[in-house]
Structure formats: structure tokens, C-alpha cells
Design a protein that fits this description.
Blueprint lengths: L2 E8 L4 H11 L3 E6 L2 E6 L2 E7 L9 E6 L4 H9 L13 E3 L4 E7 L5 E7 L17 E9 L2 H10 L12 E6 L2 E7 L17 E5 L3 E7 L2 E5 L3
Parallel strand pairs: 1-4, 5-8, 9-11
Antiparallel strand pairs: 1-12, 2-3, 3-4, 5-9, 6-7, 7-8, 10-11, 12-13, 13-14
């Protein structure tokens, strides 16, 4: 599934720093800008950051699909702009069962961001990689107290599980777009030990509609953001 729009909240004090990080340092197209928000274009997805209430410091995990034949180049490109997160001395990971390579880093708001090259997707390119070659937001972390009831709600709304459901971690969707439903306080992978906590998220899935996670264990559906 394709995420057409994704919206997160970040600390208002980090809004402009985060905008500069993505638009200036990484070179993503700045699609929209307002007093309390900005939007970048990440391939097929418009990614919006909105200022959170005073004192709130939301933290999210999301991943971006990159061309499957450009992982080494993407890693070098990313490392020239930001420090990559390491775990046990490694700054990259290969997921055997997913047939995918990933690297991770933090943005100024503290979000755990992942570039993932999924080798099952026919996505190779034959030119030097730039931010315009990012394909889409491919993963959005969704935090729940009880994952399985929320997963069943997503299934009922027309989204299928991509892997077997579990109480800890269930990916819903497909390799082009996944909602990663995880248990509250589960440690995010390659995150410097950060625990998953619920914060509001909105996603719009092409051909399906809007999913608004406004409170833990609750999803609202609609036709637009």
C-alpha cells in the first residue's frame, strides 16, 4: 500500500530546526510551510510535521524506501549528513526474512528514522542517488497497549497483515507501506534504547482512506486528512 500523506507532531521548539534538517541538509522538497507546520515530499508521500502542545516531546519511528540497488550509496550519503546509530558496533542491518538492508539515525526532534532497501521490490536506478530518489514513507510505527485488538480493527478496515500477528510486533500492509504496530514501551530497534510511546499519527493510504490514531488503542477512519 502507498502512504499518500503521513502527519506527525514534534516539539514546537524543534520545528524549524527539523525543517532545515530535511529540506536543507538532506535536500527533500519543501512542499508546504506554515507557522506551526511544514511538509516535505518523500517520493510518493507527503510527510507533515505539526507543532505539538507546549511541553510535549513526541517521538516516532518511520522508514523510507530507497532503491534496492543503492543501499551502500545511500548509507554513505546519509553518513555524510548525520551520525548513523550503532548497535553492538554495527551501523547497518540485514533482515534476512525481509530481504532488506537498513540504516538508522535521529532527526533533531529525536525521531528514529530508517532508510531501507527492500530487495524484493524492483526499484533499482542507474544514476547517482539523491533525496528525490526516495520512493516513499514505507513504515510508520503505531504504538498500542494491546496490539492485537488494534490490528484486528485495521484488518476490518481493509488492511492485511504482512507477517504473522503477535502481541509485541505486527506489520500491517505490504513492502511499499507498513503500519508497524508495537506494544507500548517496547524498545525501538536501533534507537539508542528509546522506548515506544504513543503519540498521535495520521496516515492516508492510496485507494483506502485516512487512518487517524488520536489516542492509544484507537483508530478513526475517513476519506481525507
Amino acid at each position: 500500500m502507498i502512504f499518500e500523506r503521513v502527519a506527525f507532531r514534534i516539539s514546537s521548539s524543534k520545528l524549524r530546526e527539523t525543517q532545515a534538517f530535511y529540506a536543507d541538509r538532506f535536500g527533500f522538497e519543501l512542499a508546504e510551510q506554515g507557522e506551526d507546520r511544514f511538509t516535505i515530499r518523500a517520493g510518493a508521500t507527503l510527510l507533515t510535521f505539526k507543532a505539538a502542545a507546549a511541553g510535549e516531546r513526541p517521538l516516532y519511528h518511520f522508514a523510507l524506501n530507497v532503491p534496492e540497488n543503492k543501499f551502500a550509496e545511500v548509507k554513505t550519503w546519509a553518513a555524510s549528513k548525520v551520525a548513523l546509530i550503532e548497535e553492538e558496533g554495527d551501523d547497518e542491518v540485514f533482515f534476512t526474512s525481509w530481504n532488506a538492508h537498513s540504516v538508522y539515525f535521529e532527526d533533531p526532534a529525536g525521531n528514529i528514522v530508517e532508510f531501507i532497501a527492500r530487495h524484493n521490490l524492483a526499484s533499482g536506478i542507474d544514476h547517482a542517488f539523491t533525496a528525490s530518489d526516495v520512493m516513499s514513507i514505507s513504515e510508520v510505527g503505531i504504538v498500542a497497549e494491546e496490539t492485537l485488538p488494534l490490528v484486528r480493527e485495521l484488518n476490518a478496515a481493509g488492511l492485511s497483515n504482512w507477517r504473522e500477528a503477535s502481541e509485541e510486533f505486527t506489520p500491517v500492509g505490504d513492502e511499499q507501506g507498513l503500519l508497524i504496530v508495537v506494544r507500548n514501551e517496547r524498545e525501538w530497534y536501533f534507537s539508542n534504547g528509546k522506548q515506544a510511546r504513543f503519540y498521535p499519527v495520521e496516515v492516508t493510504v492510496a485507494g483506502v482512506g485516512r487512518f487517524r490514531f488520536s489516542s492509544i488503542n484507537r483508530v478513526e477512519t475517513g476519506s481525507s486528512v
